[in-house]
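INFO batch 0412 | record 1 of 1 | parsing
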Amino acid sequence: MLKKLMLTILAILVIFEEWLWDMLTVAGQWLARAFNLERFDERLMKASPPQALLALFIPLAIVTPINIFALFLLAHGRIGEGILLEIVAKLIGTLLVARVFKLVRPALLTFAWFAKLYDAITGMLRWAHKLVHDSAIYKLSVMVKAAVKARAKAFLQYFYH
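INFO prediction complete | emitting tokens
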């Protein structure tokens, strides 16, 4: 019973991670086009390993003050605002880190310590995905995700054609 509960919780986390990653990837690509960041992206892709590491920390430096302010709000009884601000900070941080990481990953993987850490994390993620891909909740989420994508695509086509 406990194993089934833990597997269900893991499945929900994996589903959430996949959905969030997909949405933030699309949002990042859209923002890059909207703000004409192609040249910036090209510079990041050509960054040296130390520059790539610095570039990865910049989004963290941007989001950390927001996280601290969210904690300040929570500590002063403004629970709703604190939670909302933390969610916004988490989404912005994830979007920025994911976007930068995608561009600088080759340079970062030249650091032996980073390559080991990356392999360990991706190995755990593959293990978690493998565990839950056969679960009923995961299969249901895949069907729901496909339906949502189809409806969103139809909705967008209606307005853009």
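INFO post-check: The chain has six helices and no strands.
INFO record closed
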